[in-house]
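Incident review: delayed structure delivery

Summary: a single-chain prediction request sat in the queue longer than the usual turnaround. Root cause was a stuck worker, restarted by the on-call engineer. No data loss occurred. The affected request and its eventual output are reproduced below so the record is complete for anyone auditing the incident later.

Affected input:
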Amino acid sequence: MLDVEVIGSSDLPEESLRRLVAIALASAGVDDGHVAVEFVDSERIAAINAEHRGIEGPTDVLSFPVDLDGPEVGPRELGDVVICPEHTEDLSEAVVHGTLHLVGMDHETDHGEMLALQAEIVSWVK
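Output delivered after worker restart:
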């Protein structure tokens, strides 16, 4: 069972957000676990960005994977996606982007596969 926890608010309807997360996870063969998606302001995401990436200033989306390959003890904790709506052009894209990072995809090291999959998933939901 997939549990998507939404913290904070955005203009993206929760039903759409949950569907985007589910589709992104399913594309990696994941259909159960817990994901938290949190919407924060510029100040908060800038602080998180500085603390975890050593990069000053706000960004659009950050992902924090937890149980990529660990032993299963209870519900799988997939991780957290933190989004700053005021620095995000497309909330659907940010949700999918962050979720794909939770399952180990990385657009900085692949050959365009993650961003192509991201665009495809977003097109299905719009």
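Verification: Residues 61 and 83 are 4 Å apart (CA to CA).
Action items: add queue-age alerting; document worker restart procedure.
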